[in-house]
Amino acid sequence: MKERIEKLRERFAGAGVEALYITNPENRFYLSGFTGTAGSLLLGLNNSYLFTDFRYTGQAARECPDYQVIETSGESSEVLREYLTGEGISLLGLEGDYLTYNQFQTLKEKLGGVELKTVDGLVEELRARKDKDETAFIEEAVRLADEAFKEVLPLIRPGVPEREVALQLEYFMRRLGAEGAAFKTIVASGYRSALPHGVASSRIMAPGDFVTLDFGAVYNGYHSDITRTVVLGRPEKKQEEIYQLVLEAQMSAIESLRAGIKASDVDGAARRIIEQAGYGKQFGHGTGHGVGLSIHEKPRLSAKDQSLLEEGMVVTIEPGIYLPGWGGVRIEDTVLVLNGGCRVLTRTPKENLLSLS
Ligand code: ZN
Ligand code: ZN
Predict the structure, then answer these.
(1) Which ligand has the shortest distance to the CA of 294?
(2) Are the C-beta atoms of residues 43 and 22 closer than 8 Å to each other?
(3) Hey, which of 86, 122, 182, 288 would disulfide with 223, CB 3.0 to 4.6 Å?
(4) How far is Cα 95 from Cα 127, in angstroms, rounded to an integer?
(5) Stronger pLDDT, 341 or 106, i.e. the higher one
(6) How far is ligand 1, taken at its centre, from the CA of residue 88, in Å?
(7) Total domains, the chain
(8) pTM score of the predicted model
């Protein structure tokens, strides 16, 4: 944690504030290791404080040796003011993206005399590059999702409701050691596979359906994210064609992926192939996103994002084609960006459209 805190200090000093008040739960965990569900951090240039209530002070003291743990009761802005005064801080950085309007108003009232400035994205930019431990946690989250998928394959067949498949996927991920599902499991069959985010419904799967499964596991706070599309029974020619097209686009983006490439170029590598085949409008989302303590984090692999990818970033590559009323295909892997290339962490096969019956 010490290294992360030091890096952040350089950044917030560079952003022109004397201290940073952290309220986002993922950022709080990233910087302190605190697993409680209530608390905030105050990082000054020399001292680090963790404010939490009676329920968590013992736990925080154990988990966060780099912090002075301060017990608060109810309103933490009173205590915050005391420490800001003690440290002589007159310009405090806040995470504007994570404070409610009311929280901000309270801080403004209670911290009279201290100038407040929102500085967003400082911790998120650090979080984008994963260290060895973080990469290992994500790899384990990926493995748990891969293993759970194997377990539920026999259930993906005509006559079974989507919800049952989602339930079993989540059951097996937890059974195997996950803390939970990374997000609401998507199982979208038949015409519903054209919904990019069709959370599992009570629809009963039928012969000939495409079934898109998008899910992930959480391990030690870190997420994985995988999508596979399968077909129930023998695929029609068009189903094969659309699947192969999405696969080609996905592989093209993966081949382009390396440290130093622009995020928009990775998106372009997938989008070009889908556009050339005439389905550009049916691929209405970005090619991927960073994944870590949040399911969606920096960087965004979209046509608009000009930022350069860096070694240690973990991203998803997930192009799709969605034809309303007919169905859709998405293929998604979790991938580690390296110098000169990348490593696909997801192991579930995708080379052929899997036919289940
Ligand atoms: Zn996904
Ligand atoms: Zn995703």
Answers:
(1) 2
(2) yes
(3) 182
(4) 15
(5) 341
(6) 46
(7) 2
(8) 0.94
CA 307 to the chain's CA centroid = 18
Shared domain for 121 and 234, answered yes or no, is no
DSSP state of 16: T
* Smallest-distance ligand from the CA of 297: 2
pLDDT category at 247 given cuts 50, 70, 90 is very high
CA of 225 to the centre of ligand 2 (A): 5
d(CA 327, ligand 1 centre) in Å: 17
For residue 292, give its domain range: 132-356
Q: Residues 28, 125, 105, CA angle at the centre, nearest 5°?
A: 55
Residue 292 C-alpha to ligand 1 middle, in angstroms? 13
* Strand order across the 217-219 sheet: 180-181, 217-219, 222-223
Residue 141 sits in the same domain as residue 108: no
Residue 66 and residue 121 in one domain: yes
Give pLDDT tens digits for 192-212: 999 988 999 999 999 999 999
Q: Quote the ligand 2 centre to 284 CA distance (angstroms).
A: 14
What's the gap in Å between 61 CA and the centre of ligand 2?
35
Confidence of residue 113 (pLDDT cuts 50, 70, 90): confident
Residue 303 Cα, ligand 2 centroid: separation in angstroms? 16
d(CA 336, ligand 2 centre) in Å: 14
Compute, in angstroms, the gap from residue 23 CA to the centroid of ligand 1. 27
pLDDT surpasses 90 at 128: yes
Cα dist from 157 to 163, 204, 274, 354, whole Å = 13, 9, 29, 12
> Which residue reads 């990926």 in tokens?
142
Pairing of strands 355-356, 226-232: parallel
Neighbours of 279 (CB within 10 A): 18
Amino acid at site 42: L
CATH of the domain at 139: 3.90.230.10
